[in-house]
């Protein structure tokens, strides 16, 4: 009955099948094979990634819960915990953008309230192909509507996030969603089943045939037939989840609960197995008791369904009525479908007769573990070469066309040709209207970012910040990643992602406490991809250790490929930080005219992997910026101290688009307040104009622009010096122009209004065009 | 005074209204579950924002059948102040406590942002502390806030001065660019003929603390408290045998 075709349909390799037979001591039946296939899928078992993930730092005095549970948790003082996690929903979102993104949000919210935490904030990190391509606009519109549709309805604000556009994501967008909740540190609840005889309850939506093999789908590459996989994508019901959320939090107020887990990927199978495995117990259920939406469902289908908004609870014996009463209040059915046993088996019955019987251990701890072969990708050496002298000035490009030395690359874009007239102003405008840099207001205006009345730093103003009611505290959170950097150097790119996320949190005035990661890569069976993965994990580990932000959980998404072409390796890092005084929060916006503008950190004139090279020269090459982790940590500690003492009035991380773009963003949303700046250029090329471009648009790391009241400048410079952080006054706020001189010559001279108009309208124009 | 905040399944601004009433303004506040049949002695009833019953079928369409709604209706009939915020406004429309209907925003998308609204009428328990013509900067967050009414209804609303807030620019001028959802006559808020039931799309509870980016919503809560203390005063006067008749109806 089980032949190679059946195995292939289940995404199982023949040696994995041999392993199954060995564990069971017999051939599995089809239901058991289905159960193994989802539990041993990459998505659930982390079989390719686990050996690497083990190297990540996961401990620290602040860590209350590390990886392995539904979400991680850190101590935020006053007896409270911040519970948070990031997760991907890439594959479903490509197939059905609205529902794929919506159910991604639903899934991560369940992970948080499952821990006994009240979810209070969402973030998302999205990657799409070029917005010039109509399919990208359809995907963006669908994904954003899906996130909005779910988050707005359930009433959890989306307080921030990031979106980047690169052709490498055209056939495989990334949808990573992050959720954070607050719990009493003493009340964190785990996903365990223990205590023989305790009741196993099923709560929430009925089980249908949707999403069967979703986990297996998320563990395979896409090809032209992927659209046919639509039945594997689930449909979300945020109203049902709102009821579940409120009811579960109410049940958790009683002590009738032993453990709880949501039915996400691999549904009933994964929740029963993992809860049993964590509790060192067994779970026995009868699928005929499971509420079903359709008739004639087989045990196989019921066990593998990924219908949304379902939870599995283990309730103390004798307390069942109490729990049922609460769910009844919320018009939810809680059904007793089985019991906890002592034998460590997952036993599935159908009207009393056993249809599957597998040791939990075989499905979880004993799942295959691969040391996949790795090799450095061949493209790497080539793309890391960047000859800045071959770049030529934009002016020269416009006059003479591309120099010979650039070879097959296509250096002259329309933007470059437009340079002759307006020089670096045109480059600044081009960067400000590049969708990756441009304002995302068109997006976040669709998200309710104020519900729950906690949001004190809105999306687009830097890290998202929410105050914690009942305390003076606030939490800042940021998700960051740069696939282009990781494409050029996965290790350094991943380190930079950690540094940037933590820096963004520090820019809000918050002390980074912990991190969660979402690792989006291609097919791990290819040695070059596995090498990227391993290097990126190394980089994350090193940066997290140095910056003291342990990884408390996360998610790995592999097989992000379409037709054999992988996305850029894209680790996305979410960092959470604490502000002890909510009212000392800092945003990117300049405050008052006449404030001094101080650059913290050093410019190294680095253009490798920059948005400038891509937008102006159509080049993705070079090495990503250098990162000194000790210096980075000192910078972040300095920022937190300066904010706490109210010595800075704004702070903005200098990243995509470099100094000029960062300064422009500091001027935006201030009613047009300008700045007058003078900086020097580092000599990185023989051509002086390249040095100027590097000074304006280079993306050297560990730099932050702060504005300071004139009275505090001396103090700020002294503090920086004591912290060994380079600091210099580069100008002051005021007027309605942004003017930047490099080595004494004014290179940028624009009105803030004009710059802001381009930045603010760039994305919506893509959609206005389509309507016209 | 006591705020009664009705909680429908799917309400999600109930805690925000409760927080504003209790923590910001120091008043008593009670949640009232939609299956309840009495208002727990509330002096003012708030139908909060959210997605009651998931807004399935139509916004507010199912919430109006909740058991609590008949208590809300008789409270309103007796002249008790009722405020519907956002989804609460939609529910009041579906329940027939206010005239008109909500359509999808003209931009077809949900919009969450600060807008400006001009106070058109101060003769309600929810705007009596404001100045006529005062411009408030208050957030909205809705996908269906495009207020619509038949020409006759609209004429009656305007003639009876039942339009309470209108979307304007920061200077208080009505123009198309400042209308976030396409509402007829830029209507953001209306009241019933008796002026004790008000629905508004903007969220005043989101604009009560400077930390959250603005305090222009406070005047709505201050009005509630002021009108309550006035009516309590007048009741006390009556109780003491005050000769001036009709005082209790003043401004309510």
Provide a descriptive summary of the structure in words.
The complex is a heterodimer of chains A (772) and B (252). With 772 residues, chain A is of the alpha+beta class. Chain A is 37% helix and 23% strand. Chain A is built from 29 helices and 28 strands. In chain A, strands 8-10-7-11-9-12-13 form a 7-stranded mixed beta sheet. In chain A, helix 7 packs parallel to helix 8, helix 8 (134-154) packs parallel to helix 10 (238-253) and helix 26 (658-667) crosses helix 27. The longest helix of chain A is centred in the first third of the chain and has 21 residues, at 134-154. Residues 399-412 and 416-421 of chain A have low confidence and may be disordered. Chain B has a single domain (2-251), classed as Class I glutamine amidotransferase (GATase) domain (Rossmann fold, 3-Layer(aba) Sandwich). The longest helix of chain B has 22 residues, at 218-239. In chain B, strand 3, helix 2 and strand 4 (82-85) form a beta-alpha-beta unit. By secondary structure, chain B is of the alpha/beta class. Chain B is built from 5 helices and 11 strands. A 9-stranded mixed beta sheet of chain B has the order 2-1-3-4-11-10-9-6-7, sandwiched between helices. Helices cover 24% and strands 23% of the residues of chain B. Classes of the chains: A alpha+beta (772), B alpha/beta (252).
Attribute tags:
heterodimer; A: 772 residues; seven-stranded mixed beta sheet; 37% helix; B: 252 residues; alpha/beta; 5 helices; 11 strands; globular; disordered C terminus
CATH homologous group name of chain B: Class I glutamine amidotransferase (GATase) domain
Q: What is the domain total for the residues of chain B?
A: 1
Largest sheet of chain B, order of strands side by side?
2-1-3-4-11-10-9-6-7
CATH architecture group name of chain B: 3-Layer(aba) Sandwich
CATH topology of chain B: Rossmann fold
N/C terminus separation of chain A: 57 Å
Percent strand of chain A? 15-25%
**Number of E-type strands of chain B:** 11
Report the radius of gyration of chain B as a whole number of Å: 17 Å
Query: How would you sum up the global shape of chain A?
Result: globular
Helix/strand class of chain A: alpha+beta
CATH C-level name of chain B: Alpha Beta
Q: How much helix, percentage-wise, in residues of chain B? A: 10-25%
User: What does the overall shape of chain B look like?
Assistant: globular
Please tally the β strands of chain A and state the result. Answer: 28
Biggest chain-to-chain interface with counts: A-B, 32 and 32 residues
């Amino acid at each position: 009955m089980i032949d190679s075709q059946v195995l292939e349909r289940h995404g199982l390799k023949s040696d994995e099948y041999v392993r199954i037979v060995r564990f069971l001591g017999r051939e599995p039946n089809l239901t058991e094979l289905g159960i193994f296939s989802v539990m041993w899928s990459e998505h659930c078992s982390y079989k390719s990634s686990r050996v690497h993930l083990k190297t990540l730092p996961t401990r620290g005095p602040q860590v209350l819960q590390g990886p392995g549970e539904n979400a991680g948790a850190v101590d935020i003082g006053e007896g409270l915990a911040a519970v948070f996690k990031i997760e991907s929903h890439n594959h479903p979102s490509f197939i059905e953008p609205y529902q794929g993104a919506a159910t991604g949000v639903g899934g991560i919210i369940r992970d948080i309230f499952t821990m006994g935490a009240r979810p209070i904030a969402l973030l998302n990190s999205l990657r799409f192909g070029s917005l010039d391509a109509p399919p990208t606009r359809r995907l963006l519109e669908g994904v954003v509507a899906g996130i909005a549709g779910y988050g707005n309805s359930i009433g959890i604000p989306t307080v921030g996030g990031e979106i980047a556009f690169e052709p490498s994501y055209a056939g495989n967008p990334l949808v990573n969603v992050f959720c954070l909740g607050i719990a009493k540190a003493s009340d964190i609840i785990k996903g365990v089943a223990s205590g023989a005889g305790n009741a196993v309850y099923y709560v929430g939506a009925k089980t249908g045939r949707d999403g069967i093999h979703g986990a297996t789908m998320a563990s395979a590459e896409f090809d032209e037939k992927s659209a046919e996989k639509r039945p594997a994508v689930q449909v979300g019901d945020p109203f049902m989840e709102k009821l579940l959320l409120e009811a579960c939090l109410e049940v958790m107020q009683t002590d009738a609960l032993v453990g709880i887990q949501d039915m996400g990927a691999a549904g009933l199978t994964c929740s029963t197995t993992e809860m049993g495995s964590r509790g060192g117990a067994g779970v026995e259920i009868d699928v005929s008791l499971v509420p079903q939406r359709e008739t004639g469902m087989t045990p196989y289908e019921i066990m593998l369904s990924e219908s949304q908004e379902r939870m599995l609870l283990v309730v103390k014996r004798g307390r069942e009525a109490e729990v049922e009463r609460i769910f009844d209040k919320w018009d939810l059915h809680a059904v007793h479908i089985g019991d906890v046993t002592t034998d460590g088996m997952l036993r599935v019955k159908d009207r009393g007769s056993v249809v599957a019987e597998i040791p939990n251990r075989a499905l979880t701890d004993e799942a295959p573990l691969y040391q996949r072969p790795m090799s450095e990708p061949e493209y790497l050496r080539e793309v890391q070469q960047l000859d800045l002298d071959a770049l030529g000035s934009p002016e020269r490009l416009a006059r003479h066309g591309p120099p010979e030395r650039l070879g097959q690359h296509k250096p002259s874009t329309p933007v470059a040709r437009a340079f002759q007239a307006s020089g670096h102003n045109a480059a600044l405008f081009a960067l400000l209207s590049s969708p990756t840099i441009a304002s995302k207001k068109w997006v976040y205006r669709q998200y309710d970012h104020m519900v729950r009345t906690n949001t004190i730093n809105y999306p687009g103003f830097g890290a998202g910040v929410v105050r914690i009611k009942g305390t003076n505290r606030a939490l800042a959170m940021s998700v960051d990643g740069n696939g282009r950097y990781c494409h050029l150097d996965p290790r350094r790119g991943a380190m930079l992602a950690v540094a940037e996320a933590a820096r963004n949190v520090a820019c809000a005035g918050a002390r980074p406490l912990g991190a969660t990661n979402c690792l989006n890569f291609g097919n791990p069976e290819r040695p070059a991809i596995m090498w990227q993965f391993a290097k990126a994990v190394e980089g994350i580990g090193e940066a997290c250790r140095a910056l003291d932000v342990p990884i408390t959980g996360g998610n790995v998404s592999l097989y992000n490929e379409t037709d054999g072409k992988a996305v850029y390796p894209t680790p996305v890092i979410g960092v959470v930080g604490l502000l002890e005084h909510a009212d000392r929060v800092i945003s990117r916006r300049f405050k008052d005219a006449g404030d001094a503008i101080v650059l913290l950190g050093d410019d190294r004139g680095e253009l490798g992997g920059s948005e400038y090279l891509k937008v102006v020269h159509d080049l993705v090459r070079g090495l990503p910026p250098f990162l000194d982790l000790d210096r980075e940590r000192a910078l972040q500690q300095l920022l937190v101290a300066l904010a706490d003492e109210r010595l800075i009035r704004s702070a903005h991380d200098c990243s995509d688009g470099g100094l000029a773009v960062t300064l422009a963003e500091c001027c935006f949303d201030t009613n047009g307040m300008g700045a007058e700046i003078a900086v020097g250029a580092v000599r990185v090329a023989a051509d002086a104009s390249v040095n100027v471009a590097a000074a304006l648009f280079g993306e050297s790391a560990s730099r932050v622009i702060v504005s300071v009241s004139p009275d505090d400048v001396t103090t700020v410079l002294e503090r920086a010096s004591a912290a060994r952080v380079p600091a210099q006054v580069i100008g002051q706020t005021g007027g309605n122009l942004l003017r930047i001189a490099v080595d004494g010559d004014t290179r940028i001279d624009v009105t803030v209004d004009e710059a802001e108009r381009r930045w603010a309208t760039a994305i919506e124009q893509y959609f206005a065009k389509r309507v016209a | 005074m006591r705020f009664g905040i009705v909680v429908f399944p799917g309400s999600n601004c109930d805690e925000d209204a409760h927080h504003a009433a209790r923590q910001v303004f120091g008043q008593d506040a009670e949640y009232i579950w939609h299956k309840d049949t009495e208002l727990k002695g509330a002096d003012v009833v708030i139908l909060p924002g959210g997605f009651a019953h998931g807004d399935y079928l139509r916004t507010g369409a199912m919430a109006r059948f909740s058991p609590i709604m008949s208590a809300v209706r008789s409270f309103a009939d007796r002249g008790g102040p009722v405020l519907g915020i956002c989804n609460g406004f939609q529910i009041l429309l579906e329940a027939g406590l206010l005239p008109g209907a909500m359509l999808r925003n003209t931009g077809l998308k949900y919009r969450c942002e600060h807008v400006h609204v001009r106070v058109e009428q101060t003769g309600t328990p929810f705007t009596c502390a404001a100045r006529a013509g005062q411009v408030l900067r208050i957030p909205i967050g809705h996908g269906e806030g495009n207020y619509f009414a038949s020409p006759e209804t609209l004429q009656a609303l305007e003639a009876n001065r039942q339009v309470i807030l209108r979307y304007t620019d920061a200077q208080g001028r009505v123009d198309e660019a400042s209308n976030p959802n396409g509402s007829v006559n830029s209507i953001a808020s209306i009241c019933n003929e008796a002026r004790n039931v008000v629905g508004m799309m903007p969220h005043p509870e989101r604009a009560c603390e400077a930390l959250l980016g603005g305090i222009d919503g406070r005047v709505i809560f201050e009005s509630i408290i002021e009108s309550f203390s006035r009516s309590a005063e007048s009741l006390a006067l009556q109780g003491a045998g005050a000769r001036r008749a009709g005082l209790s109806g003043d401004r309510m």
